[in-house]
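[Meeting: bench + compute handoff]

Bench side (C.D.) handed over the final construct sequence. Compute side (W.E.) agreed to return the predicted structure before the next meeting so the bench team could plan truncations. Sequence as handed over:
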Amino acid sequence: MTTGLIPGGPSPDRPTGAHMPHQRRDPTGRGALHVDNRTRSSVITARAAASFDPVGRSVASARSFVRDTLQGWGFADIVDDAVVLTSELVTNAVVHAGTSADVLCLRSDDGVRIEVADRYPEREIPLQGSPVNMGSPDREGGRGLQLCAALAACWGVEYTPTHKQVWFQLDLPERPVGTRTAGPSLPSDLLPLADGRVRVAVVQIDRAGAISSWNEDAEDLFGYAAEQVTGKPLTDLAAWPHTPGTSTGIAEALQLSRWEGSYGIRGANGRVTPVYASHLRVRDTNGEPSTVCLLVRDHERAVLQTPLRVPASDTSTSSDAQSTDPFEVFIGSPAPDDLDGLLQRTVERARDMLDGDSAFLLLATDDETELEVRASTGLPSARQRFARVPVEAGPGRYGSARMPAVHEDLTMVPGAVPLLNGTGMRSVVTVPLKVEGRLTGSLGVAAEAPSRYSNEEALRLQFAADRIALAVESARLGELERLRRGSLSFLVEASDLLAGTLDRDQTLALMAQMTVPTLATWCAVYTIADQASEPYLSYVLHEDEELIDGIKSLLSKIAPPDPVPTPGARVWSAPAESAHQAALRTSMRSLGLGEPVGRISAGIGPTLATASAVGGETVVLPLVARNRVIGMLTLGKPTDEHFRQEILELAEDLSRRAALALDNARLYSERTAISQSLQRSLLPPELPEIDGVEVEVIYRAAGEGNEVGGDFYDLFPISDGAYGFAIGDVCGTGPNAAAVTGLARHALRLLAREGLSGPAVLERLNSAILDEGARSRFLTLLYGELRPQEDGSAELKVVCAGHPLPLRLRQDGTVEPAAEPQPLLGVMDDLELYEQTVTLDPGDVLLCVTDGVTERREGSRMLGDDGLTDVLTTCTGLTAGAVAARIMRAVERFASDAPSDDMAILAMRVPGIHKD
């Protein structure tokens, strides 16, 4: 891939088209055809370009290039759409068209334009006046243009006889510049009250996210002196309570021009102080950007917000006061940019409007059967965000969701509002959020005192809920759409990663790394070998690596989840229960109260940190591939946290892809193991020791994963101190050649041990090969019998049937062929073979190789018989092992490419006679 940044300049002369797709001929007369769907003209302020080779991995590289480019320009809002469209268009170029792809990103004052060009001269150019065929949704092709039409603000196609270029433009969302909210001037008695002196921490963050300024109020609030924190990243102190993939992170928030919200600052005492922050992006006279953060305690947020607290008595008796209803201010001012901010602002306004102690808001699922906790204030149950409760009435159910309801004392109706259980709230008023008659949520305000609310407060709250319901639903649908687009991009990346490996352990690691921390705080993968096996804990991952061993220890001591094939996520309570027992045991031990009875024995339970890490909601998703449960993917949250439904749906999609990838890895591993076992059976298990003769073999099979190919060797005892040896080459490589290899090696051993001579052995082997019919293959073979002699020499009887001739190296350095060529096997029925006798004197070497050695090539050069002879002449005085190693090094160094043919080297040497 090659990339380049191009300075900003005027927009290139590109076709612009009309509102509906149309075509026009290039006025130059060169036959170019342009297709566009809208007129778009803007000034280009920056460009980034890259080229990608026609290989599959280029698609992922193109996505990364576009993502990095747009995020670098600060266009995070349109990254997901741009990545999806680029992925489709580059796939068409590098995978389907098989050409390189050029990607150009153009930044303008109103959006981003991305162009993807390929080179496919065989493509048919549409005729003038014919519509552009984008294909139907069921067709494999044409989806890229359909996605452009669905997601892009405008798009177009340019054809020439040698290339095609598709471009699309994504507009930037319009956001007001300046303050986000404004409220009317209020009388002094209506201004919010502050408890004592209000301390406002002013913290300045530089371009890199490090603290550059820290005022006295920041020291007082958090306990750090300025010199202790200056230069440290704010992210080291910030405790960010957000769900990954659904809202802005602290690092991203610091880069926004304007932001407000809540998070925590970890103080010098180790405790987290909830703060409400207002971030403002500025730049100094040198143009250096930085972020100024104003922070107050979370309960003093009125200092940084529009005045909120208005006594209920005033709002009910004064028309002027009524105009300062918090919902009036809220609805009349710009809404927060994200759903979470809108919901949080809503519950705060509702709490202050009724002068309550707490408020909460739940959103309904698409089928209106459950409500999901999305925002609360004044409740310890904020940690229960995304917890779900059924809508229908019944014990422990949320029965007041579809109509306004007032509970004067919750102690008289326990379980009426499950969210308030154990919070100390006594009275509550709840009203539904409805859009066009459909239940979209529920809003409630509660107080610690009983009998605080009546039907009058319910009507006021319902009136406010009706005014805000449409805005909430619109924001929810917008968030859902962004999440789904982000999920599509996430699943595309995940599929690429999972398809890129067939290694089981790497697939397990990828499954975990893709879920943590994007979908969950921790995860565990259980695998099932077969139907009769129990689930086995194969992999554990937590976003804090120090907790992995503790979680693994905890899970290993509880029974694994049942391998139920039912699709979808199901809650698994065992980890949280065991974590609770561990925390209880630790507390009792610290108080000297003995040990509680539980599933985990004393002394071996997890630490409190581990117990907290797995104390939240835990869900199990089955890994089903080819109609069989092959494992379970377990996702977990820390204490009292829950999953949102959209995250579980995304996890379910991921689990289906991961299950197929894991099963593919299993099948590949099994087949590889079988193949390797069968291949190893085609080679002799070990070489026998021969008194008076050194023997060394080097074998290399061509092709990745192959242990045996068409070349083979053997050395085996016959009888009476005689040994048979063979080296051969079957025509071709791979499994088909290996099948003939097995036939030849085993037949040689059987026939030789029957006492047959060398020519007789090869003639019968020739008949066996021909009997294979269409599966038969040509075979070159060097076969001989070796007999060590009492005088220290060795006698060899050799038959060379079409094989490269063996070479004899004498002690004086001369090299000569040790046999004569004869016909190869597997060609004709009647063979007349004969054997030759060779005597190896002390110090002599017999070298036998296959043609993969002599036919080693580098361009037009070939090692050949002469080259092999030259190398062998340098081996005088070397052992058989050293001779074989030197020959192999010479072959490997002769060419830079990996060998394309099997190679076998058999070296036999008679040691010299040592004289005293």
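W.E. noted at the follow-up: The longest strand covers residues 272-283. C.D. will use this when planning the next construct.
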